Amino acid sequence: MRRFLSQEAAKRFDDKLMGELGFATESLMELAGLSCAQCIFKEYIPDSVIVVCGPGNNGGDGLIAARHLFHFGFRPTVLYPKPTSNLVLTRLLTQCRVLGIPIVDQLDDYSSFSLIVDAIFGFSFRGDLREPFKTIIQKIKESGKPVVSLDIPSGWDVENGNITGEGLEPNVLISLGVPKLCATYFRGIHYIGGRFVPLSLAEEFQVDLPLYPGSDQIVRIN
Amino acid sequence: MRRFLSQEAAKRFDDKLMGELGFATESLMELAGLSCAQCIFKEYIPDSVIVVCGPGNNGGDGLIAARHLFHFGFRPTVLYPKPTSNLVLTRLLTQCRVLGIPIVDQLDDYSSFSLIVDAIFGFSFRGDLREPFKTIIQKIKESGKPVVSLDIPSGWDVENGNITGEGLEPNVLISLGVPKLCATYFRGIHYIGGRFVPLSLAEEFQVDLPLYPGSDQIVRIN
Description:
The structure is a homodimer. By secondary structure, the first copy, chain A, is an alpha/beta fold. Chain A has a single domain, classed as Rossmann fold. Chain A contains 6 helices and 8 strands. The first copy, chain A, has helices spanning 7-18, 25-43, 57-71, 87-98, 133-143, 199-204; strands at 48-53, 75-79, 103-104, 115-119, 147-150, 172-176, 189-193, 218-220. In chain A, helix 3 packs parallel to helix 4. The N and C termini of chain A lie close together (11 Å). Chains A and B meet through helix 2, helix 3, helix 4 and helix 6 of A and helix 2, helix 3, helix 4 and helix 6 of B.
């Protein structure tokens, strides 16, 4: 890749997609969440999985991933500790409930899950880790379970990586659309998902797009 | 499949998905359009394709399919003869334009395209074929080109098939969610796409869901 996106560029990139380029939040989120679930299916055998969802769009991607994972034969549980009135997320929660996916607002013990999906914070994250997510991230780390992060490993600075040491160290990272700068510090299995970026937008932001095989929505880049 | 859906049941099925089951139109359409593009990629080598879009949701599925086909290496042109003020479709048209996909409102000659995608009418169609679609369907038939229909072969009665003889006779049919009754009269290559139907909804409508392989969004059922 020629260049990863800074936090400010990622924000402008997203605004363009949903502004002048005409995408609905729900469409982009659906493709992002599907991509995440497909990466997880590639890397892990269907089993119990806890999908930890934050209150923003990254959490929405997680809820969609949980739904697709269910259809792929996983047994997802959603940890959603900080409900909001966001209509998009409220509807995504309903879709999970209809499938019988348990939704909990706290979790003390991660030992019964074979995999943890981190959909807590995305590229908008800045500042210090606050509760309840500070403790949740600590517990995830203590669990020793494999972790898959969506777009940004939660707790990482979006440009400079895990500078506080408090962030997760995922086994798999799925960059959505285009990787953000912090991905340069990531040493695990790295996928890009979300095959929706127009070439004109990539050129404007001077980023290369990956070559997706066939009709796949995901591609491993390392 | 135990049972296909009548027109009235298909309407109630769709209303439930987008009502109490919490789905946004854009999410379902995105998964439907992606499924269509993936079926086409399975059956045809990437080449020039004309995607004929009606003014309703079937046309929206077609616009999304055109966008994904572009990313898969096809060279789509969209024929969109009857513009509406529908915001969802307007945004989907923008997404196609951004990719440089030509959008035309009439077409006299289909001979330069190697494939025709029929996204004209969906399961809401009833009554007689009206212009401009009556002539368009006639021209598509006269072209002798292979045709892929989304959900319903345009011109068919949704329950009783091609009873007037005026409808298309597609090579490939992609049923979205659950096949409608007219699919029992279809003798070509039949796929189901749109892996989003909750088991509880299928049971309520007494329809079986297909077994999708792996993390695929499509499955051929004949």
